Amino acid sequence: MNESSQHPQRRIKSFVLRAGRMTEAQQRGFDEGWSQWGIDYRPELLNFDELFGGPGERVLEIGFGMGQSLLDMAAARPSSHYLGVEVHRPGVGRLLHGVQELGLSNVRAMCHDAVDVLENCIAPGSLQRIQIFFPDPWHKKRHNKRRLIQPEFTELLASRLSPGGILHLATDWEPYAEHMLEVLNNCTALENSGENGGFVPRPEERPLTKFELRGQRLGHGVWDLLYRRGSAA
What we know:
The protein is α/β, with parallel strands linked by helices. The protein is 34% helix and 21% strand. It contains 8 helices and 9 strands. The chain has helices spanning 24-37, 48-52, 68-76, 89-102, 114-121, 151-160, 174-185, 210-217, and strands at 2-3, 10-11, 57-62, 80-85, 107-110, 127-133, 161-171, 190-192, 223-229. It starts with a strand and ends with a strand. Mean pLDDT is 89; it is low at 1-10.
């Protein structure tokens, strides 16, 4: 995920930071919720038990968008601890607004690049689940290198899972689904849970989003991928 230059190597970003305006509710959610549920990025390991006030399943969601599925999952599984990482402030504001509305105590948010967070803030073998739902597919061929799911990043993801930990991805863009499948199947630390090394039906714990329901009505497909870290990884 690096590109060479005359200067020290600069990592290719897997996102475009759009400065979209925040709604009043999003801004209020950010302003009122960040001090309680937001985590400022620092290049040091996070203490999950300290952050959440005790032990629990550790779940990392990368690129949660507006956060609705993350809120739904956190509400359904109050004993699990969810850390959401998203670079777009309106989405973070919307998530924090939802956390306040629902009275959730098991959600924390970071507004930073997920690669930095994984490399510097998450201890190896410390997560029970990582979920990445509908990442930017970068449709144009010349932009494919910006796709988040690449071999180097996949190895990083696998290294942060505990033995038996789950990596769950979903996309509505079939070429990206096939790309993900190829990359992930080539990661020796991960075992594909799909039949014959393929895709899986949507697991019940992943909520249907409004976007996904609209796509289904239009006949659009969605592909879920579920991998487990091997005990010898």
